[in-house]
Design brief:
CATH architecture of the largest domain: 3-Layer(aba) Sandwich
Strand content: 15-25%
Number of helices: 10
Shape: globular
Helix content: 25-40%
CATH topology of the largest domain: Rossmann fold
Order of helices and strands: EHEHEEHEEHEHEHEHEEHEHH
CATH superfamily of the largest domain: Leucine Dehydrogenase, chain A, domain 1
CATH class of the largest domain: Alpha Beta
Distance between the termini: 11 Å
Number of strands: 12
Length: 293
């Protein structure tokens, strides 16, 4: 099924899109174009492959070309803040932007990832963070948004595990003031470092790009979980990541990042257009795409 686009693209058609590297795998164009069509909005959403050195020029082009708004994905969510005119206070605290709104040449950055994650955890895993123990894998922009959102929900304990443990520790220190009642710990992403929490975690969330190209973590993630523990992988693609494949083989509740993609995308649509997207359209389009794979 092809993505619905405006019947006629004209000089009045508003352009939106996504910056990333890689970006060819993104499902955002499918669901955003479906939402624009269902809402009767004359707009089109396109993927833009943007390498890191080209990010400043790409952001400047939003003004020059009059592009209405852009989503930002790996690896640009943190670096893009330096090139914006304004940053929403929440995105500023998180230190990462995933949505840019072009307001008559003024570029304003927002972060809708946290909202998308919380909506997906509840809808796809029947999970609420309050009072729970959660381990985040990675320490990039997506992790920052997840940590801020989970702190806001009152998680009891959150661990951040990263290949560079110093980066995980820095992130934990920066965001800890958002919720003094939550314990935060930082770890190296290695079995020996995480041995202290084996079997004690309610939810593991992969916020990193591990799995995007079929790679796996260097340790069995399920050993960290309680018997009823869940796994959420923000990575999504035509096939389950090794992390999700292992979780399914063990019969564990698990989900990929499509639900989060829908949640953050719906909020981005609202920021760009000033109206909520037609209910269920984005999720339905992604389910259709999954059935065609």
């Amino acid at each position: 099924m092809k993505s619905p686009l405006p019947q006629t693209v004209s000089g009045k058609t508003r352009v939106y899109g996504i910056f990333g590297d890689p970006v060819a795998h993104s499902l955002s164009p499918l669901m955003q174009n479906a939402a624009f069509a269902a809402a009767g909005i004359d707009a089109i959403y396109l993927p833009f492959q943007v390498a890191a050195p080209a990010l400043p020029a790409a952001v400047a082009a939003l003004r020059a070309l009059g592009i209405g708004g852009i989503n930002v994905t790996i690896p640009h969510k943190e670096q893009v803040l330096a090139f914006l005119d304004e940053v929403d206070p929440l995105a500023q605290r998180i230190g990462a932007v995933n949505t840019i709104v072009n307001r008559a040449g003024t570029l304003v950055g927002y972060n809708t990832d946290g909202i998308g994650l919380l909506r997906s955890l509840e809808a796809d895993l029947q999970f609420r963070a309050a009072g729970k123990r959660i381990l985040l894998l990675g320490a990039g922009g997506a992790c920052r948004a997840a940590l801020a959102a989970l702190l806001g929900e009152g998680a009891a304990w959150i661990g951040v595990a990263n290949r560079n443990p110093e980066r995980a520790l820095q992130l934990a220190r920066e965001l800890a003031p958002l919720a003094p009642g939550t314990s935060i710990a930082a770890f190296a992403l290695a079995a020996a470092a995480l041995a202290a929490v084996w079997g004690e975690v309610d939810l593991v969330i992969n916020t990193s790009a591990v799995g995007l190209h079929g790679e796996d973590f260097p340790m069995p993630i399920a050993t960290l979980l309680q018997p009823a523990g869940r796994i959420y992988d923000m990575v999504y693609g035509p096939r389950p990541t090794p992390l999700l494949a292992a979780a399914r083989a063990e019969g564990r509740p698990c989900a990929d990042g499509r639900g989060m993609l829908v949640g953050q995308g719906e909020e981005a649509f609202r920021l760009w257009t000033g109206q909520a997207p037609p209910s269920g359209v984005m999720r339905s389009r992604l389910l259709t795409e999954s059935s065609e794979i």
